[in-house]
Amino acid sequence: MKNKPYKYSSKDRLEKTPNKKKNKTTEKVSENTVKIDEGRFKHIDSLDSSFLEARVEKKEEKNSKVKDNSEIVQKIRTLRKIFLVLSLICIVLLLFLYSSDAIKASLSSANKLPNVEEEVTKKKNQFIDSNYLFVGDYHTDSFPLQDFGLDYHYVKSSNPELTTKDIITNMKDLVYSYNPSIVFIELGKNNLSKEEYLNDISTIIRLVQENRPYAELYIESIYPVSSSYKGYTNIEARDLNQSLQRLCDDNKVGYLDIYSMLIKNNELDKDYTDDGVHLNKKGYQQVYKVIQKVIG
Fold first, then answer.
1. Which range has the top average pLDDT, 55-69, 227-241, 242-256?
2. 196 FRET partner, CA 20 to 30 A, in 1, 15, 114, 288?
3. CA 279, CA 148: separation in Å to the nearest integer?
């Protein structure tokens, strides 16, 4: 005899269904719940927590480095800003100074008219390196300047037969072309009268002053001779030298008294000459002593 299917009433569902859900819930809770050993909590102080402390210290150290790095970066950024600001200020100042100078220069050049007289004066007063020019006859032509230590800054414009008239007619080649800073002129009488000689020397002085105004000019006295010389006497030479010195003083040029350095017993010292007229090296040593006072 077959069993008849059991028929559930609504009451049975209500009573049985919650029980099933409840059991399932209980089973799930029991499966997922962490079991805790209550005995271990009794000895919590004895638990090893060093790994936790190390992790905390490491984290703090990392945070400290990050903080330090951020401070350094911030300082670098601040310095960069300061540098940029200072650079901009310098550039602005330079531009301002340049523009102001340019404006002043343009205004001055616009308001200033060319002054021919000023340019000529400037050229006349320009500085010239020491350049010694020795102009003269046989005394200058035979003067061994190199033996007395004079350097390459000197030039001899000389000729044994040179006269005052030769210089006057050829000033350009004999004087001007060398552009001298110091000029020494030595010339004998050459059978000229006292007045002719002084007039010629006066003309030479004037020409040099007009064409080379920045040059210092020195006129040497007539040299003494021996008593046997027939061209002129030492008394005539001494008288002419006195007039020559006054001429130099009046024209504000230098006068070099060579005569007094070479005379002895009213004639050319025999130690300074071999023929009574021309000087030997000892005689030129006396002449150089006078010249050296000028050139230093």
1. 242-256
2. 288
3. 15
Instruction: Please give the average per-residue pLDDT across 236-256, as a whole number.
Output: 97
Range of the domain at 256: 127-295
Residue 144 covered by a domain: yes
Instruction: Name the residue among 255, 248, 249, 267 with its Cα closest to residue 221.
Output: 255
Cβ(222)–Cβ(241) under 8 Å?
Answer: yes
**Average pLDDT score over the chain:** 80
pLDDT in tens, 134-163: 999 999 999 999 998 887 789 999 999 999
Task: Please indicate, yes or no, if residue 113 is contained in any of the structural domains.
Answer: no
* Orientation angle between helical segments 234-250 and 194-211, nearest 10 degrees: 30
273: closest CA among 265, 288, 284? Answer: 284
The domain total for the chain is 1
Distance CA 257, CA 241 (A): 8
Residue that is written with structure tokens 């350049």 in the block: 131
Q: What pTM does this model have? A: 0.58
Q: Would you say residue 60 lies in a domain?
A: no
What is the β-pairing status of strands 132-136 and 154-158? Answer: parallel
Say if residues 216 and 254 touch (Cβ distance below 8 Å). yes
Q: Which residues have a Cβ under 8 Å from the Cβ of 219 and sit 6 or more positions away?
A: 185, 201, 205, 244, 247, 248, 253, 254, 255, 256
Cα dihedral 24, 29, 32, 37 sign: negative
Residue 93 inside a domain? The answer is no
The CATH number of whichever domain residue 240 belongs to comes to 3.40.50.1110
- Mean pLDDT value across residues 190-206: 94
